[in-house]
């Protein structure tokens, strides 16, 4: 009895001594420790995220070394939470920060292995403290600090808060930190959408992110660990063994590491704007959210249709294509495909025409926003618009007849140079025919060249260039002497995005809404720091826009060249459209619009290689037709173009009331006949 009392007394003294030592230990190490509440103050390094217009599809992240998206616990699927708890800390909701059973098990394992601190019984709380505040050194000092901070962490926060901190903090490989970033990187989906097998795979990566990487050489080890996680979930009662076995059979398809960018050319267009307006540090670390104008559904359709079109055009020697779609009312870019295949190899098929070196090209080059190509007849509407401003009308009659535009050359146009060594200029029509007198409506609708050159002559090259620039064409910057009458046939280079947006001015009744790629930008807290609130500006009189719209949407006027049921006709809709083909067939274009959407398609070769002799309507037309037909399902046009008012023009000649019974020989030489057709200034 005395011995038992002595033992109890000695044990009490020893216990009190241990408590005293622990308190001293606690005080000694705690004085220099960080405050656990830093979790609620922690300024994570957050990348800039670029989304589609709905904010649902992540297109790209601009990050430094960490990909991270902070989410709340209720945004994590139960599958993923259970998978992590089952394998990392099955007693998480029942311990006080330290799992004594786990510690005991760890001590036994360490003693058995003969290596002190070789293995640990760390809880989720301990792992969180270790990854946030401490080094990974396995020392008694570090372990003591870890225990102290863990106890304080558990005292201050609820279990759900601690789990949320953990799920946003853990490294999971491929620069992904936190379960949301990992879910996006490995499966292109949110952490709330993971299947059971996918959740188990993400949980597996916690043990060894690099060694178990799905992109490494130990893929089998990852699958084995995933199956182990599923078994643990079944053992802990989170799922049935049958569910575990079913999930083991699921084939996991990991996103390719080089496919982490969606709508690549559009994203790089947005990224360029961001880099020009925000610092590199701000973009990589402050968690901006960029909500773009892109309609992800339309973008996917555009990419598919462009790739199918290029495949069909290979027989014509055209190995690339580009497409732009925007809302002419707002300028918002809805879809943008800069090149047919971002992931293509770096050359065309062997022996394609145009170069002697295999037609090398860069498949990542963005024709839509960077490429400057001749638009062919797609430039004509700007010259017509300028001429209409000066008094001509769609019903004005011009003669389509063989014409020499250099007054120093004979009208028969036999010679190629005049007496001063300057080129003679006598363009022909696409089909080599001349049609005699025809209205400007028919001339533009059928894309007849001779009347178009006469229109530019009367409108003036300088004024036409200024009109095109006011519409948003940014590339006509050569000295005026560089341009000639061939400008109306595509003698100046343009960008597809500029050209499509410029056609949007006609669609918007003369109001210009420049291309816009960003709706708004918010900071990590959701505060708006930039928002698009641009208003349209009038650059063309509404009635002039009505004239162009009336002509380009007049299917009857197009019939003699394109046929009644051509690729340019969209049943059920009034669509204005113009094609273009450059000299020597290097580029093919189709640009068309309704009041609700403008679409431009380009076909050709990046290096300017020649295509087979087919016009833009044959090569670019089908791509344009398929896309705008699809786009009109999402952006239907309930409006029709307003008919122009021609009553203000009292000149009968300009209203098409000319005497067409005259001998047309007087019009065969433009220099002699120009005064009769001269529009008023």
UniProtKB/TrEMBL annotation:
GO molecular function: penicillin binding; peptidoglycan glycosyltransferase activity; serine-type D-Ala-D-Ala carboxypeptidase activity
Gene3D superfamilies in the record: Biosynthetic peptidoglycan transglycosylase-like, DD-peptidase/beta-lactamase superfamily
GO cellular component: outer membrane-bounded periplasmic space; plasma membrane
Basic and acidic residues bias spans: 656-665
Domain Glycosyl transferase family: 58-233
Compartments it resides in: Cell membrane
Coarse class of the protein's main subcellular location: membrane
SUPFAM superfamilies: beta-lactamase/transpeptidase-like, Lysozyme-like
Sequence intervals crossing the membrane: 12-30
Catalytic activity of the protein: [GlcNAc-(1->4)-Mur2Ac(oyl-L-Ala-gamma-D-Glu-L-Lys-D-Ala-D-Ala)](n)-di-trans,octa-cis-undecaprenyl diphosphate + beta-D-GlcNAc-(1->4)-Mur2Ac(oyl-L-Ala-gamma-D-Glu-L-Lys-D-Ala-D-Ala)-di-trans,octa-cis-undecaprenyl diphosphate = [GlcNAc-(1->4)-Mur2Ac(oyl-L-Ala-gamma-D-Glu-L-Lys-D-Ala-D-Ala)](n+1)-di-trans,octa-cis-undecaprenyl diphosphate + di-trans,octa-cis-undecaprenyl diphosphate + H(+); Preferential cleavage: (Ac)2-L-Lys-D-Ala-|-D-Ala. Also transpeptidation of peptidyl-alanyl moieties that are N-acyl substituents of D-alanine
The UniProt record lists the keyword Cell membrane: yes
Annotated InterPro entries: Beta-lactam/transpept-like (IPR012338), Glyco_trans_51 (IPR001264), Glycosyltr_51/Transpeptidase (IPR050396), Lysozyme-like_dom_sf (IPR023346), PBP_transglycosylase (IPR036950), PCN-bd_Tpept (IPR001460)
Domain Penicillin-binding protein transpeptidase residue range list: 322-596
Homology family: In the C-terminal section; belongs to the transpeptidase family. In the N-terminal section; belongs to the glycosyltransferase 51 family.
NCBIfam families membership: PBP_1a_fam (TIGR02074)
Protein name listed in UniProt: Uncharacterized protein
Organism listed in the record: Candidatus Nealsonbacteria bacterium RIFCSPHIGHO2_01_FULL_43_31
